[in-house]
Amino acid sequence: MLRVAVPNKGVLSEPAAEMLAESGYRQRRSAKDLAVYDPDNDTEFFYLRPRDIAVYVAAGTLDVGITGRDMLLETAPADGEGPSAVEVMPLGFGRSSFRFATPVESDIQEVEQLAGKRIATAYPVLLRRYLDEQGLKADVVKLDGAVETACRLGVADAVCDVVETGTTLRAAGLHIIGEPVLSSEAILVRRQGSEEIPAVAQLRRRLRGVLVARQYVMLDYDCPNELLERATAVTPGIEGPTVSPLRTPGWSAVRAMIARTETNRVMDELWELGARAILVTSIHASRI
Ligand SMILES: Nc1ncnc2c1ncn2[C@@H]1O[C@H](COP(=O)(O)OP(=O)(O)OP(=O)(O)O)[C@@H](O)[C@H]1O
Ligand SMILES: O=P(O)(O)OC[C@H]1O[C@H](OP(=O)(O)OP(=O)(O)O)[C@H](O)[C@@H]1O
Ligand SMILES: [Mg+2]
Predict the structure, then answer these.
(1) What dotted CATH number matches 2-93+185-195?
(2) Do 96-183 and 2-93+185-195 fall under one CATH topology?
């Protein structure tokens, strides 16, 4: 049986369950359920705090889990101090970055100026590691959440926190300084050194199938044969585009996958070239 950890709360919870459901796995009906068994796939899902997921997976209690990259790195034991979990694949949601911020009126405008200051964070391990790498000595103030308020309340001179849209920072009168400490997103994790069992390989293929279906669309168009070289260079597809003859002499039909974000640029380019009947359709599922 495969045992999978899924975030039970927070921003990663819903998209993680959605991606698993799209991958054909049964998910819990109520947010209060702690676990659910999917008999069709002989898989049990455990709903846990994202901060704890890598710990369970590292211990080998669960085969794989979904958590944030920042959470994995925060909970990873120091070198040689017990088993750890490793990233298997990024899942394309829950993107955020981990950044320094200071009050807009503060004198601290560069990371170097953080030396000797108090920095509040809910990710003390990540922050300490980064400060050490940069050779910066500063006091780390560990908080549980709502870190942005720490400066106003006088317990810190700066914060290091998760930023997505920046709305929370702005609302707290803070602004970003320096480069991102880390770029994070939801990831699949497994125990370091563990051999991949077939059920995990299948889960990975299914998740990748969902990612591809989300990131790509199917493009069809008709093209005069003399333009085929140039048109297929715009739409090279994965292995290569399908080209089939049309009943009208001198024309071919072309079919290729393209990145969803490129859709309109590619359609414009093909139209300019002389392609016609350009159609875009969604991909519902895939194995690539
Ligand atoms: N806008 C966002 N806000 C918070 N976390 C985000 C955001 N976008 C992505 N994440 C990711 O979600 C994970 C944090 O999850 P969550 O906020 O549920 O945990 P927590 O902050 O420890 O718990 P809680 O917020 O319930 O106290 C991290 O991996 C983080 O990078
Ligand atoms: O850049 P934004 O789009 O504003 O998102 C980032 C905010 O969201 C998270 O808070 P969360 O809701 O998880 O609360 P917490 O700080 O208590 O963890 C994070 O800690 C930031 O505060
Ligand atoms: Mg949070």
Answers:
(1) 3.40.190.10
(2) yes
pTM exceeds cut of 0.90 = yes
Q: Which atom of ligand 2 is nearest to the CA of 163?
A: 1
pLDDT single digits (tens) 131-161: 999 999 999 999 999 999 999 999 999 999 9
Ligand 1 site, CB within 6 A = 9-12, 50-51, 68, 70-71, 94, 96, 145, 162, 164, 184
CATH number of 96-183: 3.40.190.10
For residue 3, list its beta bridge partners: 44
Residues in the chain, overall count: 288
**Model confidence over 202-252: pLDDT tens digits?**
999 999 999 999 999 999 999 999 999 999 999 999 999 999 999 999 999
- Residue owning tokens 């299948």: 202
In angstroms, rounded to a whole number, what is the distance separating the alpha carbons of residues 240 and 232?
A: 8
Query: Which residue owns the Cα nearest ligand 1 atom 17?
Result: 10
Q: Which backbone phi and psi does 49 adopt, to 5 degrees?
A: -65, 135
Give the distance (Å) from ligand 1 centre to CA of residue 11. 6
DSSP states of 36-100 as a string? EEEGGGTEEEEEE-HHHHHHHHHHTSSSEEEEEHHHHHHHPPPTTSS--EEEEEE-S-S-EEEEE
Query: 12-42 burial by CB neighbour count: b if 16+ within 10 A, else e?
Result: bbebbbebbebbebebeeeeeeeebebeebe
